[in-house]
Amino acid sequence: MSDFDLVEYQTRLSLAQKAMSENKLDALVFCTEAEIRYFSGFRTLFWQSPTRPWFLVLPQKGEPIAVIPAIGADLMQKTWVKDIRTWSSPHPTDDGISLLTKALSNYSRIGWPMGSETSLRMPVRDFDELRSSCGAEFIDCTDLLKALRMVKSKAELKIIQEICEIGSSAFARAGALFSPGQALDDAFRQFKIALLQEGAEDVPYLVGAASQGGYGDVISPPTNTQLRDGDVLMLDTGATLKGYFCDFDRNFAITRADDRAKRSYEKLWHATEAGLKYARSGTRCSDLFNVMHQSMGGGSSDVGRYGHGLGLQLTEWPSIYAHDHTVLKPGMVMTLEPSLEVSDGKIMVHEENILITEDAPVLLTQRAAPELPII
Fold this sequence. Notes:
Helices cover about 35% and strands about 20% of the residues.
């Protein structure tokens, strides 16, 4: 069972080992879902349980070593990883630490992600014990990992393109899914069903809002409040296929839209157009942010960024904001997500998914209408 051919994982390991050699690292160690899945193909919803820690070791020479709870052995054996070391977990005093320490015993410089957008999915006291017992130097490998994962392979792009098309097909059904007087939670439910019907494997992320002329935030779960005339309904989906995400939203006016909502939507649409014209290989994320920001007149927004990377995770490196100077490269998948304040306490957001190429970016989502659609 695997989402990719063996050569895909071998290539990922080879690139990681080359980077390790260049950075004088003996091994990389990962304990988080995206990284373990990226290098091993181990895909499961069991990550929802925080009880057990999981580890994957990538040596500079040789093949990956999985140090995992015994409950995951059968599934890991279906991946390309052959060296699988297990323990009975949860364990009250040694939840895999001695086993992992032994696996790392021959290494003196170990890479471990410690920077922005990384996390430690194990008890901090166990991490402290590991570093103490290993006798090795632990080096932050965030930049190394970021460089490896930001540029997608052809196999990854195929899946991402397909899930974006699925999301676009579901949004195209909006006129039949949403209606005045409908409860917002039912609108969410109908859209989630539509995504699954169109071919999504799961819909782990669906947020949005509806209110007069705009909305207060972009992360709310739904309530049973009915859609009213003049509401702007926004839905933002992170549907998945083989573990890869789309991430984009669409805005709709219920029955009618006031002039302010129309102008705000058009301003966002044109800011996205500016982003599409400027998003090229060699462009810095900070410059792309400034182009979209200036397109909207440099107004205020508390969202903080105008897009981000996309792939195995709903949001990935890099961020399109003023302080991220990452240079765009062919093969990066990005969201363009400008936002603005419509009125006091009301905002609007627009989002598309694109592929960076040597030339103009490729839209992975079906481009939103230039005028606010009315249902």
